[in-house]
């Protein structure tokens, strides 16, 4: 029997991805036991993230500013736009330091199973960005899962009328693989050997 405060903490923690009830209990205990070194810094970090992190209104990235640092960076190539499902994929590509264009974060992929249709994704702003001109190539970096590939097919169809080159990450992305799990070398190779669709 734990105090209601502890139960509540465990419940909230168990909703985090990768944390089941058992790890949530361990995390909660560890935080409570280490109030000064772990619990209070966590509260501070959570508050600061809640106060300052926002979604970029141009690309959907998360940053302390809107537009985000990538959208504001004039050294980056505005003619090439890399479409990713999630901010974690953007981070994976940024870690390679091999890509110097801009991004567009969809906020997910099409999924019949999860009931995610085009209207749930950040698509309107993508088409508006391309319509506004300046974009010559769109790289679909959507992973090799069934849903990722379905989304890539859907997008290459919808992008056809805009007259931009549409390419996809090449071989090296394992089937069922999410970008975030790839090692940097594999990801760089897949990016450099991207193929038009
Ligand atoms: Zn941005």
Explain how this protein is built.
The protein is of the alpha/beta class. It contains eight helices and seven strands. β3, α5 (87-96) and β4 (101-105) form a beta-alpha-beta unit. α5 (87-96) packs across α8. The chain is elongated, with a radius of gyration of 20 Å. The model has no long low-confidence stretch (mean pLDDT 91). It binds zinc ion. Residues 56, 58-59, 61, 67-68, 70-71 line the site of zinc ion (ZN). The site of zinc ion has 8 residues, from α4.
What is this structure's SSE topology?
Elements (H helix, E strand, L loop, with lengths): L3 H10 L7 H13 L1 H18 L1 E2 L6 E2 L5 H4 L4 E8 L2 H10 L4 E5 L18 H8 L5 E5 L4 H14 L5 E4 L15 H9 L2 E2 L1
Parallel strand pairs: 3-4, 3-5, 5-6
Antiparallel strand pairs: 1-2, 6-7
Helix pairs in contact: 1-2, 5-8
The structure holds zinc ion.
The site of zinc ion (ZN) has 8 residues, from helix 4.
């Amino acid at each position: 029997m734990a105090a209601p405060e502890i139960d509540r903490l465990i419940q909230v923690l168990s909703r985090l991805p990768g944390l089941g009830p058992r790890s949530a209990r361990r995390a909660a205990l560890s935080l409570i036991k280490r109030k000064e070194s772990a619990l209070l810094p966590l509260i501070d970090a959570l508050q600061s993230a809640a106060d300052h992190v926002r979604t970029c209104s141009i690309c959907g990235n998360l940053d302390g500013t809107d537009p985000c640092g990538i959208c504001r960076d004039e050294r980056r190539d505005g003619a090439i736009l890399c479409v990713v499902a999630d901010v974690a994929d953007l981070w994976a590509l940024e870690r390679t330091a091999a890509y110097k264009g801009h991004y567009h974060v969809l906020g997910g992929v099409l999924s019949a199973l999860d009931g995610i249709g085009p209207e749930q994704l950040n698509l309107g702003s993508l088409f508006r960005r391309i319509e506004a001109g300046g974009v010559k190539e769109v790289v679909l970096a959507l992973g090799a899962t069934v849903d990722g590939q379905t989304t890539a097919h859907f997008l290459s169809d919808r992008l056809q009328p805009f007259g931009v080159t549409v390419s996809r990450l090449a071989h090296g992305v394992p089937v069922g693989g999410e970008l975030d799990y790839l090692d940097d070398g594999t990801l760089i190779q897949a990016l450099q050997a991207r193929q038009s669709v």
